[in-house]
Each structure stands twice: as C-alpha cells, then as structure tokens.
Amino acid sequence: MIDKTAYNESRDESKDPMAMLEDGLVICKFGRFHMRLLFTSMAAVFASTMVTTTSSYILPMAECDLNMSIMDKGLLNAMPFFGQVGATFFTGFLVDAFGRRIFLIGGNAAIFICNLVEGSSQNFWMLIIMKLIEGIALSVSFSAVASMISEFVHKNVRDRILLLYCSFMSLSLIVAAVMSWAVLPQPWHIVLIPAYFELRVWNFYLYICSVWSLVAAILYYTIPESPKYLLSHGQEREALEVLKNVYAENTGNPKESFPVTSLGASGTFKLTKDMSIKKQITHALIAVKDLFRPPLFCRLLLFSSLTFVCLLAYSALRLWYPQLSTIIENYKKDHGETARFCIMMDNYRHHLDENFNVSLPNNLTDVCVPHLSGSETYINGIILGLFSMVFIGLSGYLVDFFGQKILMFVYLVLCALCSGSLYWTNSSIQIALLVSATCALMQSALSLQQNILIRVFPTTIRTLALSIIIMMGRTGSLLGNILFPIMLQLGCMGPFLSLSVITLCVAGLVYFLPDPNKESNGAGDK
Hints:
The chain is mostly helical.
C-alpha cells in the first residue's frame, strides 16, 4: 500500500492537474473496474454494429416482403448513417458540454426502444424511418464510448486498451453473423392481424438484436462519470472521488487509503456544475473555438478526409457483403458452379428486376421468389470478423516496429490491391478471402487512426472533434451505400475499381498525420 503522507509530500505542487490525474490513474492500476468498463463498452459496440448491420442480413429475406429494388436496399443500408450525419455534430458538442455518462445511458436506451419498434415494421417505409431514428440515437452514444475508455485508463496501457476496444468491432461482426445464422433460417411466422400485422423471422431477428443496447444502457448506469471530464469542468472533488472508488474496486483496499488528496486544480478550470444550461453551452462554445484554429483545425480536416474516404469504401463493401455472398451462393446452387464475379452480379440484377415487376399490384399471376441466404453467407460473415481480429491483433505487434503511420500506409495500399482484384475473381473462396482481407485491412487502418486522433485533441473538445470526424465518416458511409448499387447497375467493374483507386489516393494523406509520440503530455492529455 502506498503511504499517503509520503506521496503528497513528494508530489510536485506545480504539476499540471491533468498530469496529476494521470498519476492517480496509474495508482488505481488496471483491474476489475476496467474489465467492467470494457465489457460495457463491448456491449455498446455490439449495439452500434447491430444498428448498421442487421439491414444487410435481412435484405435477401425481406426483398419480397417489402418489395425492395436494388436501390431500395442501398437506401435501407444507408439510412442509419443519414441519421448519424444529421445529429453527430450536435451530440458531440453536448457530450463535451454535459458529460459522457448521461448520453451513453440515454443513447443506448433510445436504440433499444427504436429496435423494438423497428422489429414491428410491416412495410418498407416504416423500416426506413425507424432506421433513421435509430441512427440519430446511435450518434448520441457512439462518440462517447472511446472517450470514456481513454479517460479511465492510465497512459501506460492506454494504447493497448484502445486497440482492444477496436477489436470489439471485429468481434461484433462475428456475433452478428452467428446471431443471423441462428435466427434467420428458422421458419418463424406469426399472423396476429391477417394482412395488417404479421411477424416474420426477420422481425424476430430485429427484436433479438435489441438485447445489446439494453445491456449497454443498464451497465453504463453503474459506471461513474469520466474523471477527466469532471476535472476539466472544475469538479475536482467529484473527480477525486471517482478515482478513489476505482482504486478501491481494483485493489481491494479501502478508498480512504488512496494516496492522492488533491489534484491541484484550484482556479485552473471553471466550475460548470452550478452553471445554468445556457451558461454551460456558452462555456462549451468558448472552448470549441480552439478546435477551429491551427494546428487543431488542420488536424481535424486531415482526419475527416481520411475517415470519409475509408468509410465510403469500407462500409459499402462490408454492408453489401452478405447480399453479394447470397448472390454467389444462389448462383452456384442454380448453375452447379460459379462464374466470373461480374457474370453472377448481372444474373442477379436480371432476377431482381423480374421480382420487382411481379410484385406490382397489377400482376396477379407471378409470385416473387427471394434468393435466401444459406450457411455459406453466414460463414463468410464470420470469416470477415476473424480476419479483422487477426489484423488488429497483428497491428498491436507490428506497430512497435514500424509505427502507426507507416503501418496505416501499408494497410491502405494492400486494401486497394485486394478490392481491385475482386473484378477478376471467379470462385466463391477467392471472393470471400479478398472481401474479408479488404474490410479487415481497412478496419485496422481506421483503428490505428483512432489511436492517433484520441491523443492529439484536448479533453474539453475531444468528443466534439471525434464527433465531427465520425460525422464525415458516416457521410462517406451514406454516400458509399447509395452509390454502390447505382454503380453496380451501370457495370460491375465500377464499384470495385473505384474503391481501389480512392483508397490508393487517400493512402498518401497518412504522411501528414501528426506523430502521436510527440503529443505525450500535450494536447491529448489536457
């Protein structure tokens, strides 16, 4: 046990309060509390993945139930991102102004309610509207998850913990595929009100996927507010109390034995707790102006551009992958073998046009027959998640040798080569490996970028900066999911070669990213 008197006598009184808080986090160690926080964050990441991914798994099954054309499918995939684009900037500002915890709880609770209503959808437009609202709810919570983790772990393990947090996304892809495989093949169909209210298997699937947001909301209720947020808003006593509780939970020692009795923040930060909401917003706006001055503004533009292009390519391919895999699987089932990738895509477009025509009201003789997903589609989803986990784990090892910027550049170049090679593939195994590698490399590059950006923006505007960058990324995701089916209708080569070219172009921007190793005790720690 550390001697409290000796510690307080030896500490430097002129030390920055945030640096003293970092010392306090080191004393708290990494333990039970952080495991609880990581599990809570994992549930939140799973919930966010379900918001954006469930649509891609129900597309083949619901295309006849909801009379969807290929453009309708693109719109459904894009709708959660549209909701996030509209709300992320404001929610990021509010999270920095009023705290992380309240929005993590409220955002996940709102996602759960939206999931329940979405699961009851009976037509395409009801599903579209609920996906839009769900995207808005996701924007409330998503940007605060990474900030919460980074502000609770000490600097000695922060990079490794953030890398572990990034692996949750890969794990969530595996969980989404497994849940889809377990539920969607079931013959569930309940008619409550004939011709008005029916629950098909994809409705039950959406209900079941809502469990993650409920778990996240409940668990975040047990997590205290970020000590760095509290300290940066003048609440030193509350921040110190949080540290004491973390110390007691991690070490098993009584919290009274925590050696830090003061963070030396008297007069350093303005107390916002007792301010009116109007004054708190005004205070936050004053802090925001620093984000739009050099060098932070230049960093914001650079990170936003990178994220926009990367998510434009990554989200479009990842969210259309279950549909593409189903197309290949059904082509092989109908013809006994696979063909060139683009031949299979053209065959599906012809089939979908026929289904859309027979679903019109004046056609009473033909029946819409969907191309359902088989086990291969779900296995490919699991492979994609496993690839992502392997590459992120490999990044944790290679980053010590090559650095984050060089590794990001290599990943993006390899990603461009893999996506461009899709045009020439002619077997389902080749397609599965190339798509999985493309998505895994892109996600690993984005994970490395997130580790950099969290360290180069100050605490008071970190979530706002992250929210703006996420907003630009979601704009890329929205645009990618709308453009992908349009380009696919015009020709098969377009989408994949375009993804390759823009990824190569953006790889050059990595050179201009700030060096995170030069930012220690700098902006990112304040």
